[in-house]
Amino acid sequence: IMNNSRDQAVVSTQSTGGLFMAMEFVTDKTTNNPLPVYMVQAIMEELKDRRLIFGRGGLFGNCIRIQPPMCVSEEDAEYTLAMMDEVFTEFSEGKIDVEAFNPNK
Fold it and tell me: pLDDT of 46-90, one tens digit each?
């Protein structure tokens, strides 16, 4: 997961600890300004629509936590990677309606 997502424009830092993984989303990799929470929520909803449920965390709420079960299969991991890549690409291309989650709209 970590190597595939590193190329995405919005993924800044990543950390792992066993099967626990986290990804931080930013508006710009050079400044590392956190992606607004409503945009992270839009990403998470798109992932949920693809049958993937992650936790959200981080000091600014701009991180997702990935905690697969101990019995995760290679097929499950490949599906997860494919869907994450698809969602991150759609987000980067502006194909996800993030404004639907904007509380200031």
Answer: 999 999 999 999 999 999 999 988 899 999 999 999 999 999 999
Which amino acid appears at position 56 of this protein? R
Instruction: List helix spans (H) across 1-105.
Output: 2-5, 37-49, 74-92
Instruction: Give me the phi and psi of 17, to 5 degrees please.
Output: -155, 90
Q: Tell me the C-alpha distance between 54 and 67, whole Å.
A: 7
Check: CB of residue 38 under 8 Å from CB of residue 103: yes
Query: How many residues are recorded in the chain?
Result: 105
| Count of CB atoms situated within 10 Å of the CB of 91 | 21
Contacts of residue 30, defined as CB under 8 A and 6 or more positions apart, other chains included, come to none
Tokens 């995405």 label which residue? 8
pLDDT classification of 5: cutoffs 50, 70, 90: low
Contacts of 101 (CB under 8 A, 6+ apart): 38, 39, 41, 42, 45
